[in-house]
UniProtKB/TrEMBL annotation, chain A:
The keyword Flavoprotein applies. GO terms for molecular function: oxidoreductase activity. It comes from Solidesulfovibrio aerotolerans. Keywords: FAD, Flavoprotein, NAD, NADP, Signal. Residues 12-461 form the Amine oxidase domain. This is FAD-dependent oxidoreductase. It holds the Pfam family Amino_oxidase.
From TrEMBL, chain B:
Carrier of the growing fatty acid chain in fatty acid biosynthesis. 4'-phosphopantetheine is transferred from CoA to a specific serine of apo-ACP by AcpS. This modification is essential for activity because fatty acids are bound in thioester linkage to the sulfhydryl of the prosthetic group. It comes from the Bacteria. Gene3D superfamilies: ACP-like (1.10.1200.10). The modification O-(pantetheine 4'-phosphoryl)serine is found at S39. The lineage of its organism: Bacteria, Pseudomonadati, Thermodesulfobacteriota, Desulfovibrionia, Desulfovibrionales. Residues 4-80 form the Carrier domain. This is Acyl carrier protein. GO terms for molecular function: acyl binding; acyl carrier activity. It comes from Solidesulfovibrio aerotolerans. Belongs to the acyl carrier protein (ACP) family.
Length: 474, 86
């Protein structure tokens, strides 16, 4: 008889875990509280337009890179990805720089070319920085699947801020490179260079987007789940984990009262929610307290609108506006009125009516109202891109509490807990035998972090490197 | 803080955060064999001690060599004595 397994949470990490386990012969049930799988990455529609909430582009999707291989191993089909072209470089606008911003190219060689021309005095340290990022990425067993020989990690004990300060003198260049902390939500002074190189600086290596965006990525997952024979239960949250009197995992109880028997369970929900799921006395207070006190990444705020496409507005265009050179301010400090860092992204809504969807994203204080957020973001957008502003029609606003509901996270933050220096993220294995953790809190944020966390959790559960080997041979 | 106060706070943490009965907390007690802690508890122990004493514990600090409570007390006393001024 097949061993059963319940996976809690139908985001990217939960769907990946479910598919990988089904491929290993488990009878898998995937339980998601929302009415559809992966609501954040899927995005939403208004007035016939599609809007992205969790996915615009990703690193590690070039042929042979981890996401490309993991998608193949999981049997994801119909994903058409393409690199962001020259015209689609994100423009990073910093104080003291050109008003149109600096093009943030991807690809180490191209970036050195482009930024090197803007900062000729810093070309050599920039080359050093990019080399160090590449070496560090190649030191990870999951990010460099074919690497053999010694794995080098320069700046192993340094924070990103220490590395940037030691290499560069121009604050504008420091800010441009440091702005990639927005991909993981940990300030430069608090993130290790190694973690930043893996996650934040992934875009320096390669950056691709997917035709049809997050929605088509989720649809590819849904087809793969069906093909792998995973039973998907949406609109059904898990109320609590059932533990036998002898202390063994016995199943999960859903909010509607139904119990699913299982001896193996993988939770991908925010770790702070575990205290409510697991009966008292199973985990030690030290563990539950540690999970509840993990520092959190910045709270998310977005405004959505639509804009007619023309010569200066096309899907794929994006800007990042940084206010000042102090990264702490980019994350939105409590008493500030405007957003510290705001990105403006134009996405392909999938229709054919000459309109593009537009997303403004910034960090927010926890308790700001939707009305205030809308004012702050739109005001800032109007000042930064007045000609676009005049043509934009605004449709929706999402505050941290919107994101908290949407993602079943207690805080509505961009990436869950921070992977900061000195923070100990939870491991896949827990004290409750058969109960494992996966998700961005365990490994790293982003699509790649979520997928790798699933691979790691399954390998830890199976007690070997089954998935890693499969990825290497793929 | 005196040495005795520090030891008392280590014990209080073990009692509250790891639910180890107070009578078992004697210096000779072997942490893994007698107090029931295992490798999964090690990280939680580091987090609790770091927060309690405002210290930083690194993997190469010799924490792996700790076997008994007396070893743990000595480790923490030394850490607290050498921690940078706040």
């Amino acid at each position: 008889m097949k061993r059963t397994c319940v996976v809690i949470g139908g985001g990217i990490s939960g769907m990946s875990t479910a598919i990988l386990l089904a491929k290993q012969g488990f009878d898998v049930t995937l339980v998601e509280r929302a009415s559809r799988l992966a609501p954040l990455v899927r995005g939403f529609s208004r007035q016939g337009m599609h809007f992205e909430t969790g996915f615009h582009h990703t690193g590690y999707l070039e042929q042979g890179e981890i996401l490309d291989r993991a998608f193949k191993v999981m049997g994801l089909t119909g994903i058409e990805s393409f690199p962001l072209g020259l015209g689609s470089d994100q423009r990073v606008v910093v104080d003291g720089g050109p008003t149109e911003g600096y093009p943030m190219s991807s690809g180490f060689v191209r970036l050195l070319d482009v930024l090197g021309d803007y900062f000729p005095q810093e070309r050599s340290p920039l080359q050093n920085y990019l080399n160090s990022v590449e070496k560090t990425q190649n030191s990870s067993p999951y990010l460099a699947l074919d690497a053999s020989g010694p794995r080098e990690t320069p700046y192993r004990d340094s924070t990103l801020a220490e590395v940037l300060d030691s290499l560069f003198t121009d604050n504008r260049l420091k800010s441009i490179l440091a702005s990639q902390v927005l991909y993981h939500g940990v300030p430069p002074a608090e993130v290790s260079f190694v973690f930043h190189a893996w996650v934040g600086a992934a875009a320096l290596r390669s950056l691709r987007t997917i035709k049809g965006g997050g929605k088509s990525l989720v649809q590819a997952f849904e087809r793969a789940l069906e093909y792998a024979g995973v039973r998907v239960e949406t609109g059904r949250g898990v109320n609590r984990v059932i533990v036998s009197p002898a202390g063994a995992l016995a199943g999960v109880c859903l909010e509607d009262g139904q119990a699913l028997e299982t001896k193996i369970c993988v939770s991908t929900v925010h770790p702070a929610l575990l205290a409510d799921l697991i009966p008292e006395g199973i985990f030690r207070p030290a563990y539950t307290n540690r999970l509840a006190r993990l520092p959190e990444t910045p709270r998310a705020a977005m405004v959505f609108g639509m804009i007619p496409t023309n010569s200066d507005v096309a899907p794929g265009n994006s800007w990042l506006f940084l206010e000042g050179h102090n990264p702490a301010c980019w994350f939105g400090v409590e008493d500030r009125r405007g957003p510290g860092a705001m990105s403006v992204m134009i996405s392909d809504p999938g229709g054919d009516n000459g309109m593009a969807s537009l997303e403004l994203a910034a960090c927010s204080a926890p308790d700001v109202s939707k009305y205030e957020l809308k004012e702050h973001l739109i005001q800032s957008y109007m000042q930064r891109l007045p000609s676009l502003y005049q043509r934009t029609q605004f449709l929706e606003v999402a505050s941290p509490s919107t994101f908290a509901r949407f993602t079943n996270s207690p805080f509505g933050s961009y990436y869950g807990p921070q992977h900061a220096v000195g923070v100990h993220p939870p491991q896949p294995r827990t004290r409750l035998p058969g109960f494992y953790l996966a998700g961005q809190a365990v490994v790293a944020p982003g699509i790649a972090g979520a997928v790798i966390s699933a691979c790691v959790a399954v390998d830890v559960m199976l007690g070997g490197d089954t998935v890693l080997k499969e990825l290497r041979q793929c | 803080m005196t040495d005795q106060e520090i030891i008392e706070r280590v014990n209080a943490g073990l009692e509250e955060e790891f639910e180890i009965p107070r009578e078992k907390l004697v210096p000779d007690a072997k942490i893994y064999e007698e107090l029931g802690l295992d490798s999964l508890d090690a990280v939680d122990m580091v987090v609790v001690l770091e927060q309690q004493f405002k210290i930083k514990i690194r993997e190469d600090d010799g924490i792996q060599k700790i076997r008994t409570l007396a070893d743990l007390y000595a480790f923490i006393l030394q850490k607290v004595a050498t921690r940078p001024e706040q």
